[in-house]
Amino acid sequence: MLQTKTTTSNASLDETALLALIERDDPDKALREIVQRYGTAVYRYIRQMVGSDDLADDVWQTTLLQVHRDLHRFAGKSSLRSWVYGIARHRSLDAIKSRGRRRRRFVLDQDAMDEADDMPAADERLSDRQLVGALEGCLEELDPQTRTVLLLRFEQGFSYNEIATVCRMRSDALRARVSRAMPKLRACIEGKGVL
Amino acid sequence: MTRCDRISAEGWLGDDDDSRAREHLEQCADCREAREAYRRIADGFVALGAEHELPGDAEARLWAAVATQRDRRRWRWPVWLGIVSAMVAAAAVLFLLLRSGGSERDPAAQRVLALAVLPPDGQAGDDPVRNGQPAVGDRLRITAPADDSADPAHFALRVYRNERELLVQCPGDPACVRHGSSLVVLLPIDALGVYTALWLDAGEPIAPSSSSLAQDLADAVSRGAEYQLREVEVR
Do B183 and B227 contact (CB within 8 A), yes or no? Predict the structure, then answer.
């Protein structure tokens, strides 16, 4: 039997229309919409979770392939976005586990790190890029479960209720996790001479 | 954890209500400093995301993977069903051979893209299809449907090695030979790698190849083309 594809629409569908596509069993078109809507954001989340471009690329492919394969199983108990991020989270954690305990240090901006080592004066404001470099390095030092909560909350802008759906945890437990993690993050970044 | 550490970028994370938090912040320089630090960290998270862009060809590779996944799933039958199907197919082939005097059924007549590995030229007895692992020196025979009535610009048969090397493009390449309603390519295997045949059929002229299987497939899919993929790995 031949594979028949429909042409893509430039207009982005709302979530109801997207769900209708899924119910109509049109996974290709639904995936195209999902990639258009969440593809880049999901990639950025995965990239921060796994810490390397190549691995992020692999995990992104695996995530979206699973989305395509399992769309018919999506029951609508959560938002489609939460469901997609839930898959991205699982695949990212799998990738981190299979990478083993070899902790790869970030070397994102060597200049920024070199300058951080120089310990600038307290009143000297370092650039946002240096903050980002330090933040990225410090995130890598957190455990993956905490990292995913922080990324979903602050990078992706999820509410605690949405994160609770993605991570299958209670929202008050998530808040507590964030409140414990933020001082550690702050101390780590300050330890790099940033903030 | 100090009291000030309980202030996050979002305000209090403890039981204190906002008015108590505000009141405390007015009196506590350390807490104001902490709140400012968390705000900057929160801003850093937003900038963090913008540091990384999805690779330009990621979506094209995704569609190629979707096609491959679908192709594999289509042919992945339960074992018992496979055995039963094989027996039925064998009986049907025997019946057809007896009726037609042994002539081979043209796969193109069924509008199916077929890929077979043949032994090196000169070693083939009666052109038998090789069983087992293909090797360098063998030949690929690819048979694709090609309706006489169809506009040649509306269908294409392409063979790639390792997804990025376009070896044959039909119609147009001398390696493509037309046999009735089918297009046949006989291609020597001269290097290790994954050989993929892609057949496209569209309602409009098919765009020239970019030499990348993923890109070509994504382009064809976005234009509503029908496609089939077959691949074999030579290692």
Answer: no
Phi-psi region of A193 (alpha: psi -120 to 50; beta: other; left: phi over 0): left
Q: Which two tokens stand for residue B39?
A: 């705000």
Residue B41 one-letter amino acid: I
pTM above 0.80, yes or no: no
Q: How far is B63 from chain A (nearest CA, A)?
A: 9
In eight-state DSSP terms, residue B109 is G
Give A86's contacts (C-beta < 8 A, 6+ positions apart).
A78, A165, A166, A167, A168
pLDDT digits (tens, 9 = 90+) for A86-126: 999 999 999 888 776 444 443 333 444 444 444 444 444 45
* ipTM attached to this prediction: 0.72
Q: A102 to chain B nearest CA, in Å? A: 23
Lookup result for tokens 């694709």: B144
Contact of B144 with B200, CB cutoff 8 Å:
no
N-terminal to C-terminal alpha carbon distance within chain B: 59
Q: How far is CA A117 from CA A37, A104, A193, B101, B232, in A?
A: 40, 19, 7, 84, 53
In the prediction, which pLDDT does B69 show? 76
User: Looking at the DSSP assignment, which residues form a beta bridge with residue B144?
Assistant: B183
Neighbouring C-beta atoms of residue B189, cutoff 10 Å: 20
| pLDDT band with cut points at 50, 70 and 90 for residue B50 | confident
CA dist B71 and B65 (Å) reads 10
Give the A window 84-123 contacts with B, CB below 8 Å. 108
Whether A182 and B49 lie within 8 Å, measured CB to CB: no
Structural element, H or E, at residue B10: none
Closest A-chain CA to B11: A179
Listed as ranges, residues in chain A with pLDDT below 70 are 1-13, 100-127
